TrEMBL record:
The gene is gpmA_3. It comes from the Bacteria. The active site is at H11, E88. It comes from Weissella cibaria. GO terms for cellular component: cytosol. This is GpmA_3 protein.
């Protein structure tokens, strides 16, 4: 059984991040600060000998990935592989909405009005379920739909025949996805009601048995 070393980076800051808008499958460009986030991550990872690189198929993730790969001094002949499996949580009709309004609506049935309060009381997966229930179209992903998609993405990485035990793999991810991974695999050691910083680095070990996390939001766990 092989174990892969994942370096998981949150994409650089976008305009929707600046405007406090939910940004799942929707997309907005990197700001100047977001471009700088990607360059800084690239400098920190310049010596990591990546054997493969993955991201979601959103431009904010792809632009961040390509900036990091361009700065890498040891990874050669790597083509970025994109997959919809690595997209952020889908927020349905709340895509592009003010985050505070969306989470107030999601928490109305349980008497809570902020994302942090809902997550602290019910956990990350239940928070997804509450948003789907609040979505008038019920298009937002619930926890089951979300994990089926994301876990298929990790299987895609593991099944890559070019990757061997111990190889380093770059994955450009999203804020809520990192929170979700921390909640599920962080063994209760990671605070999950705030998003990690744009351009922040996490280190994870991926195998058929699951994921272990050794660094999150630039901090060793």
């Amino acid at each position: 059984m092989k174990t892969l070393n994942l370096t998981v980076v949150r994409h650089g800051k976008t305009y929707f991040n600046r405007y406090n808008k939910l940004q799942g499958w929707g997309n907005s460009p990197l700001t100047d600060e977001g471009i700088a986030d990607a360059h800084q991550a690239g400098e920190r990872l310049a010596d990591v000998p990546f054997k493969a690189a993955y991201s979601s198929d959103t431009t904010r993730a792809m632009d961040t990935a390509n900036t990091i790969l361009a700065a890498n001094q040891t990874a050669t002949d790597i083509s970025l592989q994109t997959a919809w499996n690595f997209r952020e949580e889908f927020y349905g009709s709340y895509e592009g909405s003010n985050m505070d309004v969306a989470w107030t609506n999601a928490g109305a049935t349980v008497g809570l009005s902020t994302y942090a309060a809902i997550v602290d009381a019910y956990g990350v997966d239940k928070t997804k379920d509450l948003l789907k229930a609040a979505d008038p179209w019920h298009d937002a992903e619930d926890a089951t739909e979300y994990w089926q998609r994301v876990e298929a993405g990790f299987k895609l990485i593991l099944d890559n025949p070019a990757l061997q035990d111990g190889d380093d793999v770059l994955l450009i991810s999203h804020g809520n996805t990192l929170i979700s991974l921390a909640d599920r695999y962080g063994q209760g050691k990671i605070q999950v009601h705030e998003r990690p910083a744009n351009g922040s680095i996490a280190k994870m070990q991926l195998s058929a048995e699951g994921i272990s996390i050794s660094m999150y939001n630039n901090q060793i766990i």
